[in-house]
Amino acid sequence: MGSTPRRARRWRWASLFGATALAVTAGGALACPAGAAGTNVDFATHCIPPAVSGLPPIDGTTTANVSVDNTSPKVGDTVTVTYTVVTAAASNPTDLALPADIMTPTGKVALGGAQTGAVTVTGPKKNPPVPGKAAFPSFSMTGTFTVTKAGQITLSPGDYNIHTSYILELDTPCTVITPPAPVSQTVTATDGTPSNTRAISLGSASGDPGAGVTVSGTNFTPGATVTLAGRAGDTQTADTATVTANAQGAFSGSLVVNDKTTTGIVAYEGGSWNPDKGAGPAAYVVNDNTPVPAGSQKLTTTVKAGTLSMSQAGDSVALSAVDFGQGGASTGRLNSVTVKDFRGGPAGWSLTGKVTEFTGPGAKIDASKLSWSPACATKAGSPSTCKAGSAGTVGSAGATLASTPNGTLTGGEFTVDAGLSLDVPAFTPPGSYSGVLTLTLT
Fold first, then answer.
1. Is the terminal CB of the chain with fewer CB neighbours within 10 Å at N or C?
2. Apex CA 256: angle with CA 252 and CA 257, to 5°?
3. Where is the signal peptide (predicted)?
């Protein structure tokens, strides 16, 4: 009788390790893939439980899909890949429940077609508790790759491994029995369009009618014929001249400006203005020196350029509370930001934000857990129109909250808002957590 408790203890430990080994074959937390979802595919999988479990290899069928954030990238773009195991090859065979947040998955996504190789993907250490004899939850892993060739690139789910931190640190590798697995996603890459780095500068910002202004340019096509032209708002004037770019793509020429409505000067390659092959407008003003008729008085006023500024409705935001053991979205709204652009020039603006990690009682919540849904309103009569940034992660690297484009004449007043959501892990220690969201206007 004295040996019975020891045998019972040994059986419980063996059962525990066995359950852990099978859990890591299939377990993890379900994450919602961003962007274009792939097709669910089935493939035969061979999983090897840790030796300490004493269990034989597990052969079964895995159902998975691969999604991407951009199905039409250009060469040089970075594509984010999400590999989701929808249904794993095994389920928990024991009555022992497994706790939450013990599984960390890693894996590979196979590239084929125009570009070959493998994308390394990793997942968060997050999973719900798994009851005994229950099916294991899905888990997702993400990674990135840079597009190097144009054409169709196929993506197939590959080998994956689950690391568990429960009683012991254990790994369970699962391999595709007949690689590659079926194609789950296809992206079509195109050749990237070189950015336009052409630029011009003027010898002076104003002049009398009929005066010449020196126009200098850089980064134009070597040997190209370049047209210099006056602009009145969005319309080209009759004042033009041509120059030839040297072997370094630079030039310097003179443009005689007669049109008194001129507001700027441009330079471009080809038969007509093309922003992809041109530069400017650079601001230029023609002095009005028209003689004053006898018995008349010339009245002159000046519009002074202002500044680009922003103000906030407050400097603190209280997000909603979440329950220990459940976690989830802690939500709130950004204090409204008012942007005033009174510069009166051609430049737009960009409002970006980045956040620190959230620190609390002996624990931290990563900055990547904060996301926002921006909104932007333009005051009536403003020359520019505000565009809200994309909804998504803010993080320590930052993201765009709102912006306005460059134009012939920009400016106005704008109100920027955003919904905020902090994804709090389920068993984050109770207490208050704070991070700092910094907004930058440029």
1. N
2. 125
3. 1-31
DSSP structure class, residue 190: B
Is the peptide bond between 180 and the residue preceding it cis, with omega within 30 degrees of 0?
Answer: yes
Query: HSE of 411 in the Cβ direction (CA atoms, 13 Å)?
Result: 11
Q: Is 76 left (phi over 0), alpha (psi -120 to 50) or beta?
A: left
Q: Please give the class, per CATH, of domain 4-189.
A: mainly beta
- Per the CB < 8 A criterion, the answer to whether 307 and 266 are in contact is no
Q: Mention the CATH class of domain 199-286.
A: mainly beta
Where exactly are the structural domains of the chain?
4-189, 199-286, 308-441
> Cα(first)–Cα(last) distance of the chain, in Å?
79
Separation of alpha carbons 396 and 45, rounded Å: 38
pLDDT in tens, 124-180: 888 788 776 666 678 888 888 888 888 999 999 999 887 777 777 777 788 999 999
| Top-level class of domain 308-441 | mainly beta
Residue 136 has a CB neighbour count (10 Å cut-off) of: 25
In one-letter notation, the amino acid at residue 423 is D
Confirm whether 199-286 and 308-441 share one CATH topology. Answer: yes
Q: Which residues pair with 67 in a beta bridge?
A: 82
CA distance 332 to 178: 48
Which residues make beta-bridge pairs with 173?
161
CA–CA separation, 420 and 336 (whole Å)? 12
